[in-house]
């Protein structure tokens, strides 16, 4: 791989710049301590990467990464608590009171042979060579007492562009995940992908195919958490969507607008699946392909099942309680938000209705009933009949939560027992028509439905 040193055009911001002042003000104690220790050893040291980008954008700051001209073994000698997490690539994790700080030696990369990582790294003392190996210009900046911006990252931030450092085809050939990362950054920052970078996306597909599904899943999830989902057009046009989830093919402006109205993350994938008539099992298959945890697979599948159970108008009263009972209060709020995005205006207030219904805490499952299996057995039921009776009691209570009283349910179950001998099948496990408890006048009112 050729170096990009010849392309360097340094732009340094004076010490009094707003970015440097904000960095000094926001810097965690642990990061400051690491930098001071490196200074005392006579080393060059800078904050690099995403933290610098986010300082310019005024975004919340996450990881603080440090780059230095010291070798890994020298870094290890300076600090008492270290974890050599990637020492072969020049990275040492320094453990501080405010959290771990990754410190990496300035380096250049050797040839990339597997579309993931360089075959070797070459340590340098030149910061700008180190910045030249990074993926995008907005990530190829460093800051300390000055800002070092050799590739025009500040200009691209102002223009709201995601641009590769140097030749986009070379950068994508080095790491097959970079094409998807380009779209992820465009989505999370609300930026556009620069023309030459965009043109290089389709040719990167063979390298993209080599990337582990787990890494693809992380980037796709972050993309679906973005403030803008317009990069989904490029996801399809580039051919990456066909590799990730061909079931979702067919991105258009209406779809993008609908997904932007859904909750960030996998809820948007569920909404996308609904719009493309992908079955609940098909949605789970997509997430399984992406090696998502089984809990996330089940959750997204349940969101689809819950939404397919809804009609043209949102359920209310006892029908809403039945819906909550079927799909559970854990998944219902997110499923309701998916429904609002998917079904539109009629479901605008549905998430609010769901939250209010859950807040009242009505009995929604058998465990919430005022009687239990032992009570039912005492009435003469046995085996599977016990579960059927409890199910009928729950159905009875879902109609009117005020029926969830021991006396009322015992009377109801007793009538089921009386009717058992008159039925040849299990239809007697439905509430008797017109049933009411004469000792409980509240059962006759419909004001709680």
Brief sketch in words of this structure:
By secondary structure, the protein is of the alpha+beta class. Helices cover 48% and strands 9% of the residues. Strand 5 and strand 6 form a beta hairpin.
Structural class: alpha+beta
Helicity level, as a percent range? 40-55%
- The total count of helices amounts to 23
Average per-residue pLDDT, rounded, comes to 88
By DSSP, the count of extended strands is: 12
Q: Note the main sheet.
A: 8 strands, mixed
CATH fold description of the largest domain = Beta Polymerase, domain 2
Count of structural domains? 4
Rounded to the nearest angstrom, the radius of gyration is 30 Å
Residue stretches low in confidence (pLDDT < 50, at least 5 long) are 1-16, 424-428, 430-449
How is the largest sheet built, in terms of strand order? 1-10-9-2-3-6-5-4
| First-residue to last-residue Cα separation | 70 Å
CATH architectural category of the largest domain = 2-Layer Sandwich
CATH level-1 class of the largest domain: Alpha Beta
| Beta-strand residue percentage | 5-15%
- Molecular shape: elongated
CATH superfamily of the largest domain: Beta Polymerase, domain 2
Question: What report would you give on this structure?
Answer:
With 449 residues, the protein is an alpha+beta fold. It has four domains: 1-159, 2-Layer Sandwich (Beta Polymerase, domain 2), CATH 3.30.460.10; 160-244, Hydrophobic Seed Protein, CATH 1.10.110; 245-360, Methane Monooxygenase Hydroxylase, Chain G, domain 1, CATH 1.20.58; 366-444. Helices cover 48% and strands 9% of the residues. It contains 23 helices and twelve strands. The strands form three sheets. An eight-stranded mixed beta sheet has the order 1-10-9-2-3-6-5-4. The longest helix has 16 residues, at 384-399. The chain is elongated. The termini are far apart.
């Amino acid at each position: 791989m050729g170096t990009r040193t010849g392309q360097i055009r340094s732009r340094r911001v004076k010490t009094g710049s707003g970015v440097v002042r904000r960095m000094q003000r926001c810097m965690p104690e642990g990061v400051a301590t690491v930098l001071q220790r490196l200074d005392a050893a006579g080393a060059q040291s800078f904050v690099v990467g995403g933290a610098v980008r986010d300082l310019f954008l005024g975004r919340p700051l996450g990881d603080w990464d440090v780059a230095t001209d010291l070798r890994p073994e020298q870094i290890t000698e300076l600090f008492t608590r270290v974890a050599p997490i990637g020492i072969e690539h020049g990275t040492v994790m320094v453990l501080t009171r405010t959290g771990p700080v990754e410190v990496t030696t300035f380096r250049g990369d050797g040839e990339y042979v597997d579309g993931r990582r360089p075959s070797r790294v070459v340590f340098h003392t030149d910061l700008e060579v180190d910045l030249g190996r990074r993926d995008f210009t907005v990530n190829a900046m460093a800051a300390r007492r000055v800002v070092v911006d050799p590739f025009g990252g500040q200009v691209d931030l102002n223009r709201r562009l995601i641009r590769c450092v140097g030749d986009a085809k070379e950068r994508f050939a080095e790491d097959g995940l970079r094409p998807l990362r380009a779209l992820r950054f465009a989505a999370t920052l609300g930026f556009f992908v620069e023309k030459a970078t965009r043109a290089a996306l389709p040719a990167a597909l063979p390298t993209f195919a080599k990337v582990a599904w787990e890494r693809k899943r992380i980037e796709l999830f972050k993309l679906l958490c973005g403030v803008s989902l317009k990069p989904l057009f490029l996801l399809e046009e580039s051919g990456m969507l066909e590799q990730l989830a061909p079931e979702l093919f067919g991105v258009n402006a209406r779809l993008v607008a609908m997904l932007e109205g859904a909750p960030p993350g996998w809820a948007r994938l569920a909404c996308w699946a609904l719009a493309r008539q992908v079955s609940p099992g098909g949605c789970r298959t997509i997430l399984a392909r992406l090696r998502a945890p089984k809990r996330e697979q089940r959750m997204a599948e349940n969101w689809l099942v819950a939404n397919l159970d809804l009609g043209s108008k949102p359920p209310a009263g006892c029908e809403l309680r039945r819906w909550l009972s079927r799909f559970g209060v854990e998944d219902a709020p997110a499923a309701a938000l998916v429904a609002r995005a998917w079904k539109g205006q009629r479901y605008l207030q549905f998430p609010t209705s769901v939250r209010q219904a859950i807040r009242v805490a009505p009995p929604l499952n058998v465990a919430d009933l005022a009687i239990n299996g032992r009570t039912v057995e005492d009435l003469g039921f046995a085996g599977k009949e016990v579960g059927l009776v409890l199910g009928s009691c729950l159905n009875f209570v879902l109609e009117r939560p005020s029926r969830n009283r021991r006396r009322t349910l015992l009377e109801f179950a007793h009538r089921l027992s009386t009717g058992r001998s008159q039925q040849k099948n299990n239809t007697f496990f439905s509430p008797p028509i017109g049933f009411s408890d004469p000792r409980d006048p509240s059962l006759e009112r419909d004001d709680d439905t």
